[in-house]
Amino acid sequence: MVCDHFLRFLDEHPYITKLSQLRAKLFEDYKIRRRREWVNPNGIPITPDKPIPKKTTRGAKTNTRNMELGTLRTIFNQAIKWDYLKENPTKGVNMLKVTDAKPPRFLTDEECEKLQANCGTYLYPIFFTFLNTGMRLSELLNLEWVDIDFKRKKIKIRRKEFWIPKTGEREIPMSRGMFDLLQKLKKENGMNSNFVFHGTDGKKLKIKLRKELMKITEKCGFPDVTKIHSLRHTFASHLVMKGVDLPTVQKLMGHSDIQTTMIYSHLALTIWSTLWTSWILRVFSKRVARE
Question: Can you list the domains of the chain with their CATH numbers?
Answer without folding.
Answer: 2-81 (no CATH), 109-267 (1.10.443.10)
